[in-house]
């Protein structure tokens, strides 16, 4: 766990060094959850690197599918994914 999370944090620190602290925290959690490769290819990262943080934060809400199933749909029985994405979006937007 510690090594995987450390890799996610290290990647975010290299990929988006100018992003605000809480944006980095949210992106590291996202990378830990979906994989560094997914973050690396994402519009989320591209917008964050461009300083378009409000738009970047909204990208979390696009990541609601696992194995082709939309986890916003209650019949797919995984409310945790939408909750986690909303939490990531909210953390990303925290400003000090």
Model description:
The protein is mainly alpha-helical and 96 residues long. It has a single domain, classed as Lysozyme, CATH 1.10.530. The protein is built from six helices and two strands. It has helices spanning 2-15, 21-34, 36-40, 43-49, 53-58, 80-92; strands at 65-66, 69-70. A two-stranded antiparallel ribbon has the order 1-2. Strand 1 and strand 2 form a beta hairpin. Helix 1 (2-15) packs across helix 2 (21-34) and helix 2 (21-34) packs antiparallel against helix 6. The longest helix is centred in the first third of the chain and has 14 residues, at 2-15. The mean pLDDT is 93.
* Binned strand content: under 5%
The number of helical runs is 6
| Euclidean distance between termini CA atoms | 28 Å
Poorly predicted segments: none
CATH topology: Lysozyme
Helical content stands at: 55-70%
Spatial shape: globular
| Category from helices, strands and their pairing | mainly alpha
Secondary structure elements and their pairing?
Blueprint: H1 2-15, H2 21-34, H3 36-40, H4 43-49, H5 53-58, E1 65-66, E2 69-70, H6 80-92
Antiparallel strand pairs: 1-2
List keywords for this structure.
96 residues; 2 strands
Précis, in short:
The protein is mainly alpha-helical and 96 residues long. It has six helices and two strands. It has a single domain, classed as Lysozyme (Orthogonal Bundle), CATH 1.10.530.40.
């Amino acid at each position: 766990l510690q090594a995987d999370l450390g890799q996610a944090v290290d990647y975010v620190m290299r990929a988006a060094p100018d992003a605000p602290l809480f944006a980095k925290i949210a992106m590291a959690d996202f990378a830990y959850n979906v994989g560094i490769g997914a973050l690396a290819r994402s519009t989320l990262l591209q917008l964050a690197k461009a300083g378009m943080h409000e738009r970047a934060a909204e990208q979390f809400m696009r990541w609601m599918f696992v194995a082709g199933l939309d986890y916003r749909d209650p019949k797919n029985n995984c409310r945790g994914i939408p909750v986690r994405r909303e939490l990531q979006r909210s953390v990303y937007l925290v400003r000090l």
